[in-house]
Design brief:
Blueprint lengths: L1 H6 L3 E4 L15 H4 L8 H6 L4 E4 L5 E4 L3 H11 L20 H8 L9 H4 L17 H15 L12
Parallel strand pairs: 1-2
Antiparallel strand pairs: 2-3
Length: 163
């Protein structure tokens, strides 16, 4: 899916739990309260595309990552440098970030299925491995680390483990 998002012209993010007031004012801080920013699989939707548009529950445009101020807001919320968000990501491909740095982007995200915490990172590290649902979160993460080590000499990966 990472490659699909990377080749997309635009990615539209519908924040179903974010609402604007009747006059369009951002009174509820929808980005900061939206579950979308805590879900594992949405990380690739945020990082891979060049143009990401965010919409409220009412399909009102909240912001576009092309806008510097909005990109700064999303960067502060996610801990992902503005260099890797939106229109800049062609100049700063995701693989320019250290393995450890990319892992921090996913550290506080959640998935419904335990293994998906590892599986949602495959595209971020440009690795492939079979999805073995039922293997558990720890085993899936170990296999992910093994695949990353096969193609990267970045030893910062070894600083990460399962809690």
């Amino acid at each position: 899916m990472f490659q699909w998002y990377k080749r997309s012209v635009e990615c539209w993010v519908h924040l179903a739990d974010a609402s604007l007031s009747d006059d369009g004012v951002d009174t509820t801080a929808p980005l900061e309260k939206s579950r979308w920013f805590n879900r594992g699989w949405t990380l690739q939707e945020l990082i891979a595309p060049n143009h990401v548009h965010f919409f409220s529950y009412e399909w009102t445009l909240i912001g576009i990552l092309d806008d510097d101020a909005f990109r700064d807001r999303v960067s502060k919320l996610t801990g992902i440098s503005t260099s890797y968000l939106g229109v800049n990501n062609d100049n700063y491909p995701v693989n320019h970030a250290s393995v450890s740095h990319r892992m921090t982007w996913a550290a506080n995200r959640e998935t419904t299925v335990p293994e998906d915490l590892a599986y949602c990172l495959l595209g971020l590290f440009h690795v492939n491995m079979p999805l073995l649902y039922g293997e558990g979160r720890e085993r899936a993460f170990i296999r992910l680390q093994e695949e990353i080590l096969k193609q990267s000499e970045d030893q910062t990966l070894l600083a990460w483990g399962m809690e």
